[in-house]
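Task: complex structure prediction.
Instruction: return structure tokens for all chains below.
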Amino acid sequence: MLNLLWKADHKRGVYPGEHDARVLNLLFKGLSEKLQDTFQKLKRKGRLTEKDVELALREVRLALLEADVNYKVVKDFTSALKERAAGAEVLESLTPAQQVIKIVNEELVRMMGEKQSKLAPVDNPPRFIMMVGLQGSGKTTSAAKMAHYLKKHGHKPLLVAADIYRPAAIDQLQTLGRDAGVAVFSGGKEDPEEIAGRAAKLAEKEGHDYVILDTAGRLHIDEALMEELHRLRQKVKPLEILLVVDAMTGQDAVNVAQSFHERLGLTGIVLTKLDGDTRGGAALSVKAVTGCPIKFAGLGERLDSLEPFHPDRMASRILGMGDVLSLIDKAQSVVDEKKSREMEKKLRSQTITLEDFLEQLQQVRQMGPLDELIQMIPGAQKAGKQLKNLSLDESQLNQVEAIINSMTREERQKPEIINSSRRKRIAMGSGTTVQDVNKLLKQFEQMKKVFKQFGAMDKGKAKKMGKMFPFH
Amino acid sequence: MLEQFVKGLNKTRGAFKSRLEGLFTRSEISPDFFEELEEILISADVGLGTTLEIIELFRERLKEEKIKLRDEAQDILKALLVEMMEGEAASGLVSAPSPPTVCLVVGVNGVGKTTAIAKMAHLLKNEGREVLLAAGDTFRAAAIEQLEEWAKTVGADLVKHQAGGDPSAVMYDALNAAVARKVDYLICDTAGRLHTKANLLEEIKKNYRVLGRALEGSPHEVLLVLDATTGHNGIAQARYFQEAVPISGIILTKLDGTARGGVVIAVKQQTGIPVKMVGVGEKKEDLEYFDPHKFVEALFL
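Output:
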């Protein structure tokens, strides 16, 4: 990824690290910039008053509404905020805009729940997890992802197909279960209660701990189907009842969450489709009306793209501040610290080889599809136009990988020995053209030059960025 | 058909109705009147920017017509919204000069594309047209089976390839079949995709190009399916998809819940894309042509 970011930039003589700074600037374009503007105007007349703070709170209100937080929730939130924002810490501050942002963020985090909330442990296996929600919210996909997640963490989950209404829903769960390597129980189109009963017996016999029950999507106002869920709940006495909510949901999220909660007594929320560009205010609405923690977030189409939910990060996202923390986490989970330090040394001394380059490339790719990563960069959506020019095409990376793979060990370490006949051979071997090989070699040389500048940089700053991206 | 719509809307009345009755009483228009109206529009997902715009226009009209009482203002507001939703584009489906009329149906995950396509086939068949379906969602697990079951239910033919195949190839085959069999409509399903995934939008572009090369002028309709429960993100969806392929209309689904789908007003304002059809229930007959009057009534019922 960095290679691509860098490619778009090197013409302007910017080294990669600076890209982060610029993206970070974009991040505050939303609410913070508006607040800055508001306070800037006010400052000219000297002292800030309570009325001025009210103007700022109006901006907060608009930002939350724009993020699709329910208007009633916004009202409650801003009135709770008023007292703090009108306090001395803001009025007497030299940087009132920052103070307001800090308070808004703190209060949002408090509302979202400060800690990460996990699945309840299984006391007496097997125990059911019921997945419920509207049509199209992503129940079946989330059920399979959760099974994958549990399996990865040493559990033995069983998936149960209880959506007997939607055509081919059972086939879908079976296919996904196969991909995840998790057992799927389906009782065909019989009554969901029957299916659950038989699944429980099977789980007991085969030693499953979590039994994930995928129920049919239904409207919260559909009496008959809500009654069916209620009966199902009585029957399986689930450990968890999770409401699956599409992060793009608008004002209606409160009605949906409230109805499901009143009827079933939810224990948590799964927020899906967060890999898009929605600010996801529905998260706040749902949390506010049910009081239930959001336990998981769906961040992509792959089976491994279900992650524990971080309320603090969601607060930043709703305010339009991106998801830097998740990105950093992803980078850290695939980057070997020791290797990073070695790399840093190599870069400084300019002894980096194409072999190192390949390794770095593969590390970045382990983090997941590029477009998903890019989405987590704050301001990435706003910077959409510029980012498009980066052409986040995975096939380009494939090409680079193929070219380097077609080189001999010696060539990778000393690219200067690659003469024209070697170029031809590499191109043939990698299924590319000599021009492609030339391009890569040229880019690599330029990159080394860029890092020469970089090596001269202040050490502390370089280290900080080292955490952000595996490659530099 | 009308009963279906009203039945769907009935569910949505509830609290909303009483609030509106409270709004348009026989008393003078005061500043809090507009504030209340703002809340009603926002709670219907009309979106912040568009809500403020509507209120501005509404104020002007009231001034022009010298209206002072709240209850007299109601019709003005409704007329204003109907105008916004009507536009020049006819709300019915386009029909090609000579059959088949080709429709490409796109949208993000979970909005109800496959179901909407099945209902569309049913609607067209009821009008006496021959319909062929193309199972272009080769990505999602069991999407082909889902459309297949629907095709049986509504009695339409289906062209499919294997899961994981190239959607463009499916559409190409389907189009040739549609021409050979002289069907009136070919409706192509696609995999759900978030509008932020550039490579997946490229795939839609390719589908569009392949159809255009196989039959000049096709696809005649590119329909974006929007979920009525969607908030501001609906605007982004419309914009990004429109940037990829020329969207000719919207199918607004899931209007039978408590969501009002007000985001389509914002979409119409900002992109000009008209709503062509609405989904009002789960059964095969629960899809109908869009009627701006009914839609606006529903916003205020």
